Amino acid sequence: MLPLPSPHTLLGGLGPERFLRHHWQRQPLLVRQAWPDLRSPLDAETLAGLALEAEVESRLIRRTGDLWQLEHGPVPEQTFLALPETDWTLLVQDVDKLLPDLQAVLDAFRFVPAWRLDDLMVSYAAPGGSVGAHVDQYDVFLLQAQGRRRWQIDRRPDACRRERDDTPLRLLERFEPSDEWILEPGDMLYLPPGVPHHGVAVDACMTWSIGFRAPTDRDLLAELLQMLLESGEPERVFADPGRAPATHPALLDAGSRRQGCTLLRQCLEGLDDGLLERAFARAASRGKPGFQGRAPEQAVSAESVRAHLNAGGRLASHPALRVVLLEDGDSGWCYMEGDEFRLEPEPFALLSRLASERVLSMAALRPWLDRPDCMGLLLDLINQGHWELVSDADG
Ligand code: SIN
Ligand code: CO
């Protein structure tokens, strides 16, 4: 397992509070030796091995002069064998979920809620390799894991953000850097959404991108609609008393248009915050499709859980699991992969504890194991594949 730096070191001495106040979503931050002595447990061959697989999201980007070529994975082995010495980059998404050794990288960023985390993307670039100058719509920490990369950014508010339409990548039409650094292993650059940036490998190098996500208004509205459909609440119906005679059978007249908009607005305004918060929590708990936990081959029993923990075994959450908790006094709502359930105080406390760390041992869980309601919850979580029993050898 990777030794993690303290949040203080990772954030260049700022500490989470100051970082979040001054930089998060606001302005870039370069941290030299954010992760001192970082040794990547991952090499280029392993990364290429992942990109061979059909279910892994990967991209190979090649550049010849100003000609850019994008190939989505799976990348055939022959393609790797024929790659030139320079000017290409291989990018693999969700490495945290694919390689258990690397899950711990995300633990260093727990000063941001886990439901905001998207994934660890790893890129390996030959000298000169780059994905071009572009803008991302999410927060990202770019951690240099091997070799050196030159990063240029344009932090000016009026930076050009128009995209070219002559390449398969979303490259910027124009890029004029305001800042430039060469990052060495262990150095890190934080970028908020919307900052134009351009990284070019100085020598063969590997960059880890810890990327975040944020629900959009459409995500939330889709979730809210789903909840309304399931709620059994009475529906409001379009009404048109005193309407004017129709001038054309197909025309949506001005009065009807107004009334339709009012109906929609009143629907949203009539909803209490509790329901809106639950829709938000449900949306935030949805993981990436394709990574859901799988039920164990054989259902586990209370005895086997106790025996496992007593023997020094541990309980680990599925790498793609996103738990969201909404407190309501001592009890609360819990969300996982869009499922919502209400928990009484003790089971709620157990779930909060479970969701507070990726891996837990008997010492952390003992207070709940003799309560039938808590043990019942634990067994459900394990038998649905959200948590699993692991030994030290599994990490
Ligand atoms: C890279 O790792 O090459 C690109 C990461 C980024 O610019 O978002
Ligand atoms: Co980017």
Report helical residue fraction: 25-40%
Distinct ligands, ions and cofactors found in the model: succinic acid, cobalt (II) ion
Assigned CATH superfamily of the largest domain: Cupin
Give the strand content.
15-25%
What's the CATH topology name of the largest domain? Jelly Rolls
Q: At CATH's second level, what is the architecture of the largest domain?
A: Sandwich
Number of helices: 13
pLDDT < 50 runs, ≥5 residues: none
Q: Strand sequence of the main sheet, in spatial order?
A: 1-9-6-11-5-4-2-3
Please give a structural write-up.
This protein is α+β, with helices and mostly antiparallel strands and 395 residues long. It has 13 helices and 17 strands. α7 (217-231) packs across α9 and α11 (345-356) crosses α13. The chain has three domains: 7-212, Cupin (Jelly Rolls); 217-240 and 250-285, no CATH class; 302-394, 50S ribosomal protein L16 arginine hydroxylase, Chain A, Domain 2 (Malonyl-Coenzyme A Acyl Carrier Protein, domain 2). It has helices at residues 7-10, 15-22, 44-51, 77-81, 95-98, 100-107, 217-231, 254-269, 273-284, 302-310, 345-356, 362-369, 372-383, and strands at residues 29-31, 58-64, 67-72, 88-92, 117-125, 140-146, 149-153, 179-183, 188-191, 197-201, 205-212, 314-317, 323-328, 331-336, 339-343, 359-360, 387-390. It has an eight-stranded antiparallel β-sheet. β2 (58-64) and β3 (67-72) form a beta hairpin. The mean pLDDT is 95.
